[in-house]
Amino acid sequence: MRRFILTRFLVMIPTLLGVALLVFLLLRVVPGDIVQLKYAGEGAFVPKETLDLERARLGLDKPLWRQFVDWMWGMVRFDFGLSMWTGRPIRTEIALRLQLSLQLAIMATVIASLLAIPLGTLAAVKQDTWVDHLVRIFSIAGLATPSFWLGILMILSLLILFGWIPPMTFTPVWVDPWANLSQLIWPALAVGYRYSAMATRMTRSAVLEVLREDYVRTARAKGLWEPLVIARHALRNALLPVTAVIGLEFAFLIGGLVVTEQVFNLNGIGMLFVEAISRRDYTMTQALVLLVGVTFIAVNFVLDLLYAILDPRVRHR
Amino acid sequence: MGERVFELPEIGFSARLEAAMPRGVSALLWFLRKKPLGAAGALVIGGMLLMALAAGMVAPYDPLETDFGAMLGPPGRAHWLGTDAFGRDVLSRIMHGARTALLVGFASSFLGATLGALIGVASGYLGGRVDLYTQRGMDIVISFPIIVLALTVVAMLGSGTFNLILAITIPFIPRVSQVVRASALSIREMPYIEAARALGMGKARIILRHMFPNVMASYLVMLTAFLGQAILLEASLSFLGLGTAEPTPSWGLMLRGAAVEFAERAPWMAIFPGLTISAAVFAFNVLGDALRDILDPKLRMA
Amino acid sequence: MGTQTEKVVREYARRFPRGVLLMAALAFGFQAWTADTPQAATPETPQPGGELVFAVGAEPPSFDGHRETTFAMIHPVAPHYSLLLKFDADNYPKIVGDLAESWTVSRDGLTFTFKIRDGVKFHDGSLLTARDIKATYDKIVAPPAGVVSVRKASYAAVDRVEAPDARTVVFRLKWPEASMLANLASPWNFIYKADILAKDPRWYEKNILGTGPFKFVEYVSGSHWVGKRHEDYFVKGRPYLDGYRALFIRDTAARLAAVRGGRALVEFRGDSPAARDDLVRALGDKVVVQESTWICALTLVINAEKKPFDDPRVRRALTVAVDRWEASRVLSKIAFLKGVGGLLRPGSEYAMPEAELTKLAGFGKNIEASRTEARRLLREAGVPDGFKFTFKNRDVAMPYQPMGIYLIDQWRKVGLNVTQIVQETGPYTADLRAGNYETNQDFACDFMDEPDLQLFKYLSSDKSPANYGRYKDPTLDDLYLKQARATDPAERKKLVWAFERRVLDEMAYQWPTLWWQRIIPQWAKLKGWKITPSHYLNQDLRDVWLAKE
């Protein structure tokens, strides 16, 4: 087991390094240049010497390998550096948004789990009945609705029905829970619904699979009370793959809610991502890609561990 | 990693499948009876394909034809689904937009699934160092959020249908390859593959002739699953301004700009293309589900 | 935005004294304006107090006005600063004093002397003196290495700035410069503190310290900007507001929802007609709408180096094929576009009247005849029917996208098959500058009406870095200098029009499609704010107040 953990852990390092190298190179291939955009994005004309001075100040005149090594050396010391666009520490900029993104991801996950696990189980138990069909239609509809669409619809309905829209700025939950909730509950619902669709489907098929296992049949044959069989035997064993789906989706939610954040005007990691890319803020984009990569890889690592603990066969694969 | 995201069979038992499945017309009937939802999905998709192919003949108007006398017109006899901010017929644009959507959908999911499957099979079969490197490479790509990858591709190459397909294809590849690799790993040790090896068949031939057909089930299921996702992604990217460019009719594009601005006064501009997208994705999903149920032996035994 | 014109215009024009403007300046200067207490825009009695919340569609790249070119900097930052002079919002283009109490201009037009208000305090409590103004303008006119001053060239005439005593600033010019006064009223020229600039000339890129009506409170990037009342503001009883809050809302739909839901009272750049109508319908008399023509135009740039666009007949066909009057009628319903005009803002002093304008290629009112002519021109130039070319456009929805769709449709009607390529600002600007395009949609915005500024974009490309059309035309350069030299307004008008005819009609190099229409729907309880033809002007919020309900 220890060896398994160690190898899985070591494998993460080259992957992360690859992610870093890839984003570093990609950014520098993308046309449009941060200095040019910063000084002359809106049509102004700035002499080349000034631009060169600024490039030198940002360290963009150094050879590529040197820039990469500098960046990596910073990361090793947990020094994310400064945003090339705002000139402020990346750590501060990210921390500011992570609060919102993390809370939104947690809320959406809770909503999704609360919807998905009961609905998925129900659908599995009532397989091929109208209940099953209804649940599946509900969940596939969630997958089939563009999230921005749902968001816009939500905002418009709130406006038309109540002449009210959620607050536009983020208030931490410990400052004013009510303001916080009235802003985040809507996007959490929109995201949670879509997210639950995936999880519901996963729950359904996992439970279906478990229901066919011998021990469940045995339990049933013994005449155990059906809900108990499902809760104790079926659901417990079906939860692993469901957790996996939820976990992976959670990792995605941290940086992937680009459209939802835009529609609800949330100051989250996803918007920061889009802005960093469109401004060609190299350092910021790099840090964000790495952050999302680390989250994703870490979640995977934890899931792998969980699998290995619960299913010994995995260890020897 | 990816195999847990999609509910897929570990092994494709294509031989058993063939034996178990009815053929011809009876197969269709069997499918219809057994999987009404899936059949409905297939029907919708068929309709959309037809719409895309015959758009030029069926559509009541030229999708590019502006009519400033009929700007923002409500649905009515002349324009069944109303007109947009330039007086263009919404129905005709949806019909022609089916071309873009289905082209992007089919092209990117086909490319993504095929490349992914080839890489997955090759990686799984060859094993060793090749496998290690490929899988790490796939890990890298998969760690990028899809939308960010797409943003980068579009920023790099510019927007447009072809680049859009590319942007959607790339993130699909590793996801398919990981699932398929898992299947390939278990098939590799099967007796008939060993036999083929013993007969002195080349690696390429074994992969293409024997391994690939046996992961067809996973491949097909993933392909349909991705079709829906690709259409949705096209809409999202177009919404962000990264997709196809006006005046080319595209569903995602129809939801952008004026559609949002006029959402209250001319809701038809946004509702109908939105519904079309949902219907398409819905159809592909139910069809994918039905396919999975049929092709997945474990579920079928129930 | 678009202030590139101001940038280099002076350098080019400085060799030539400009009589007419000079005379105007002298007359103006001798009047010695006395800045009196400002009057509220409304007859109602202003009520003090309250926080104004408004939306801004983008975020400032830096806080330094001397460096920036975007409204995204002006709107949140301007309330922190004072200017030397400013445009009077109620009587644009009249110029009044801000920090300057009064001023005189010497008879030869070479010396501008400003009397500075007494007792003006910075937000840190220190007193503003003439030294601060000198240091500010030194930075604008001759920035130290590594410091950007985008509009430096507008001040090329400035020889030196002196501060003989604490309340006097003297600008000494190398040659008479008629629009100097207007340039000293530039909304970008925030007055900074000399001591800080001496220590770090880039301090103001990330920090705020001014003498304006509002102090800086906080800026949360991606979210909002907050200012509060400056108690020691030099105008007694101002500002009325306790503070203001600018919300950064990138998405147009979200921004409109914010205004409609009352989360913000206004957005100061400009909204679309659809937004205006929705707000009015939803909120009734709770909103009022202010509209104005706008010193901003969308222009079509044609790459004169690429075949077949090197042929004036082809370029002419492109402009003739576009029905601008229909565009105005139609697009004004769905976009903030309206004015049909030449190179100057329709209705402004030097603009061509409609009777003259309609004689130019592309401005005629008989579109059928025009289309026939366009087809004929194309045929003559050997361009086949169904000829394909590309049109590059910015991925900014308003007003770029509607015009793009319109243009392509108009060209389609004369048998041209145009593909639109939509680009992000970065690649878009890069391609435009590098000449990597066939046709492209560009824009120009200025903070004042001035032929020198607005015509500059159309000079030979080696003379004007703002000309992306890649053509050289000595006739135009010559006309430009002549109009700048003209002593008589009527004479100057003729020359300006000759310039316009050359650009738009004879050579059809590149041309404005429509001028923008500034539409500001706002909550009625927001009082004391007056629209101007530029979204860069009148944003210090000094006279703004909120009516209690």
**Average pLDDT level of chain A:** 84
Assembly context of the chains: heterotrimer
Distance between the termini of chain A: 13 Å
Estimate the global geometry of chain A from the Cα principal axes.
globular
| Order of helix and strand elements from N to C terminus of chain B | HHHHHHHHHHHHHH
Shape of chain B: elongated
Specify the helix fraction band of chain B.
over 70%
Task: Assess the beta-strand content of chain A as a share of residues.
Answer: under 5%
Distance between the termini of chain B: 27 Å
Q: Please tell me how large the radius of gyration of chain B is.
A: 22 Å
Radius of gyration of chain A: 24 Å
Explained architecture:
Chain A has 317 residues and is mostly helical. Helix content of chain A is 79%, strand content 0%. Chain A has 14 helices and no strands. Chain A has helices spanning 2-29, 34-40, 48-58, 64-76, 90-125, 130-144, 147-162, 177-211, 214-221, 226-256, 258-263, 269-278, 282-310, 312-315. Chain A is globular, with a radius of gyration of 24 Å. Chain B has helices at residues 14-20, 24-34, 36-58, 90-126, 128-142, 146-157, 161-188, 191-198, 203-214, 216-239, 251-254, 258-261, 268-295, 297-300. Chain B has 302 residues and is mainly alpha-helical. Chain B starts with 13 loop residues before the first helix and ends with a helix. In chain C, helix 9 (312-320) runs antiparallel to helix 12. In chain C, strands 13-17-12-16-14-15 form a 6-stranded mixed sheet. A 5-stranded mixed sheet of chain C has the order 8-9-10-1-11, with helices on both faces. Chains in contact: A-B, A-C, B-C.
Please outline what is shown here.
The complex is a heterotrimer of chains A (317), B (302) and C (549). Chain B has 302 residues and is mostly helical.
List keywords for this structure.
heterotrimer, B: mainly alpha, MetI-like fold, 14 helices, 72% helix, disordered N terminus, C: 549 residues, alpha+beta, 17 helices, 22% strand, globular
Layout of secondary structure:
The complex is a heterotrimer of chains A (317), B (302) and C (549).
Chain A: H1 2-29, H2 34-40, H3 48-58, H4 64-76, H5 90-125, H6 130-144, H7 147-162, H8 177-211, H9 214-221, H10 226-256, H11 258-263, H12 269-278, H13 282-310, H14 312-315
Helix pairs in contact in A: 1-13, 5-6, 5-8, 5-10, 6-8, 7-8, 8-10, 9-10, 10-13, 12-13
Chain B: H1 14-20, H2 24-34, H3 36-58, H4 90-126, H5 128-142, H6 146-157, H7 161-188, H8 191-198, H9 203-214, H10 216-239, H11 251-254, H12 258-261, H13 268-295, H14 297-300
Helix pairs in contact in B: 2-3, 3-4, 3-13, 4-5, 4-7, 4-9, 4-10, 5-7, 6-7, 7-10, 10-13
Chain C: H1 4-13, H2 19-30, E1 51-56, H3 71-77, E2 85-87, E3 95-97, E4 100-105, E5 111-116, H4 130-141, E6 158-165, E7 168-173, H5 180-184, H6 194-199, E8 214-220, E9 224-229, E10 243-248, H7 252-260, E11 266-267, H8 273-283, E12 287-302, H9 312-320, H10 324-334, E13 337-339, H11 354-357, H12 367-380, E14 387-394, H13 400-412, E15 416-423, H14 425-434, E16 439-445, H15 451-456, H16 474-485, H17 489-506, E17 510-523, E18 526-527, E19 545-546
Parallel strand pairs in C: 1-10, 1-11, 14-15, 14-16
Antiparallel strand pairs in C: 2-3, 4-5, 5-7, 6-7, 8-9, 9-10, 12-16, 12-17, 13-17, 18-19
